[in-house]
Amino acid sequence: MEPEVRSLLERAVALLAGEGVRVDPEAHPDFSLEKVADTFLALLQSALAGGVSRATIEQYATAMEDTPVARTKRLFAMRHREWLSYNERRMQMRKKWEEFFTKWDAILLPVMPCAAILHDHSEPQAGRTAWVGGEQRPCWDLVTWMAPAGACYLPVTVVPVGCLDDGLPIGVQIVGPYLEDRTTLDIAKHLLALVGGCPQPPGF
């Protein structure tokens, strides 16, 4: 994660703690970020495959290279038995979230490890890269922090917590229990007031 992004997120957490909110930077559900990201991307790619022809799907299934593009093609072409396995993982993680939210009202997560990146359509999305923390990372890595909520049907409210020196805004995800959208919205209202409101671009 970019150091400047981490600093803004930590500042937002400190502001909440200063208002008496109980905060534990080590609290998380009983599964790894890597596991939920892997599950989320697999289920996402299979869902996106709905707009791809059957012939193309069969062609994708033969992509054997160890590249991000080839791996994405194989996920597009996954068989139902594979989807069932990923979905079972999702259901197990949803249960872990239920247990987590018996102790906590919400969890704060980054939106991305960096600010918004430049548009790049020179390669298929799976083949693109982005600079994060001084190194080039696969473009799909940028959605990793969206996976915990996205894979498990959890409500999320995103609010800006500040801007980088170049003016690009940084947000934080406020993730709450299943169907408790009002919880994340209420926390967002209070946090937004603490960080000074939404940045306003010139001319607006």
Task: Sum up the overall morphology in one term.
Answer: globular
Taking the sheet with the most strands, its summary is: 3 strands, antiparallel
CATH fold-level topology? Amidase signature (AS) enzymes
Low-confidence segments: none
Distance between the termini: 30 Å
* Mean pLDDT figure: 93
Output the helix-strand order. HHHHHEEEHEEH
Question: Which range does the strand content fall in?
Answer: 5-15%
CATH superfamily: Amidase signature (AS) domain
Count of DSSP H/I helices: 7
Domains, number: 1
CATH architecture: Alpha-Beta Complex
Find the structural class using helix and strand composition.
Answer: alpha+beta
Radius of gyration (Å) = 19 Å
- Helical residue percent band: 40-55%
Query: Within the largest sheet, what's the order of strands?
Result: 1-5-4
Quaternary organization: single chain
Reading off the top of the CATH hierarchy, the class is best stated as Alpha Beta
Q: Count the beta strands.
A: 5
Report a brief summary of the structure.
With 204 residues, this protein is α+β, with helices and mostly antiparallel strands. It has helices at residues 3-18, 33-48, 54-60, 68-76, 80-100, 147-150, 181-195; strands spanning 107-110, 129-132, 135-138, 156-163, 169-175. It has a three-stranded antiparallel β-sheet. Strands 2-3 form a two-stranded antiparallel sheet.
